[in-house]
Specification:
Growth Hormone, Chain: A; 0% strand
Length: 401
């Protein structure tokens, strides 16, 4: 913990972490708020699911595209435009009574305009700290983001059920604008300029570490989404237990990230951390008792933030600085698709065999990630004696001979 205290004393680090967490806080609220609101307006969960699907498609498309735009038009400009469009789309969903296709179009626009805060901040980090602090910073970031997934759903559910779905969506707009403005106006966002990438969109996926980070992120988040579906299905008649078990899952991730964040990252780091997740999730199928699930998910959670930290660090160390934002955008898209796939597979298995099916799906996703990490271990960079900062952008210099 002493290392993290030193890290947080670095000028600007604490501020930029707090600003980006606030700006991203609505990410943990939008899905639930839209679900509650569209179901309330239309009386159909199916309609709400279609709007959420449109939103997710927009987010998946936007990830690498808006992240890449930051190198062309600047971070502040892209973040400001997307922030305003996203807030307007959510406000329109809240205040307008329109046919379902219009709600879907608004959801798609809101997803497409999701501000690329995550890509921006992870591009900024290497410019704020020295090389020895970068890996712990990624680990701290991955750990603290669990705050979003613990507090945000609880807050928006409370507001949506007690005050109404319209106030819940408008609260998201307020937090989105306030947190986004705080992040955009942070001095570090103005000081760091991403060079314009000279390669075609998607070229960064030719880098083995980027494609491996995207693939393992897809499988890891798919496992997490399946767990969430399983917990909700298990305690459908006792919501308190569901919230507490998921909170323990997130606390495990937070604790694991803080405990393992200082450990140097070698080629086998991802495999070891996904092994922890796989073992924990495999044990969940033994019993659906709340205490058992809490204990096993605490174990599984201990590997999640450390695995995410490996993804961020290996990506940073493997691409040029001009490509980092786009690379993180692709990783984010992979995680979004993984969340959708994990929820869908778990949902079908819950309908077919019961809640246990969701935990089997979660363990399967995690085991697949572990297998990928073992089979392609040579594609993971060894960062134990390397700087995790991005590769500097260079241009050929013409000389006269």
């Amino acid at each position: 913990m002493a290392g993290y205290r030193v890290l947080l004393r670095t000028p600007g680090v604490g501020r930029i972490i707090a600003a980006q967490l606030t700006a991203r806080f609505p990410n943990g609220m939008i899905s639930l708020a839209v679900l509650l609101h569209i179901e309330h307006v239309t009386g159909s969960y199916g309609a709400a699911g279609l709007v959420l699907a449109a939103t997710s498609v927009g987010q998946a498309i936007a990830g690498p595209v808006t992240s890449r735009w930051m190198g062309r038009w600047g971070m502040r400009r892209v973040l400001t435009v997307t922030l305003v469009l996203c807030a307007a789309a959510i406000a329109a969903i809240a205040l307008l009574v329109v046919p379902l296709p219009v709600y879907m179009a608004l959801g798609f626009v809101g997803g497409l305009a999701t501000p690329p805060v995550q890509s921006a901040v992870r591009t900024i980090y290497p410019k704020m700290v020295n090389s020895s602090q970068l890996t712990p910073l990624y680990s701290l970031d991955a750990s603290l983001q669990e705050i979003i997934w613990v507090l945000a759903p609880v807050l928006i559910t409370l507001v949506g059920t007690q005050a109404g779905t319209v106030p819940a969506l408008l609260l998201i707009v307020v937090i989105l604008l306030g947190g986004g403005a705080w992040f955009i106006l942070s001095p570090e966002v103005g000081r760091v300029r991403i060079p314009r990438s000279r390669r075609a969109l998607g070229s960064v996926l030719r880098k083995p570490p980027v494609i491996l980070a995207t693939a393992t992120g897809f499988l890891l988040i798919g496992a997490c989404a399946a767990v969430e579906a399983g917990v909700v299905a298990t305690f459908s008649h006792g919501g308190l237990e569901a919230g507490l078990v998921l909170a323990v899952f997130a606390i495990g991730s937070l604790s694991g990230g803080l405990a393992f964040g200082h450990i140097p990252i070698g080629r086998w780091a991802m495999a070891r951390r996904l092994a922890i997740v796989t073992v924990g999730l495999s044990l969940t199928v033994v019993s659906l008792n709340a205490w058992w699930l809490g204990g096993t998910l605490l174990i599984a959670g201990a590997g999640i933030a450390p695995a995410l930290a490996v993804m961020f660090a290996m990506t940073s160390a493997s691409v040029r600085f001009s490509e980092t934002a786009e690379a993180y955008g692709w990783i984010g898209t992979g995680q979004l698709i993984g969340a959708a796939a994990g929820s869908a597979v778990a949902g079908f298995l819950v309908d077919g065999v019961g809640p246990q099916g969701a935990y089997v799906a979660a363990a399967g996703f995690a085991a697949a990630g572990l297998i990928v990490s073992v089979l392609f271990v040579r594609g993971f960079p060894d960062l134990r004696h390397r700087d995790a900062s991005p590769i500097p952008d260079t241009e050929p210099v013409h000389t006269v001979t």
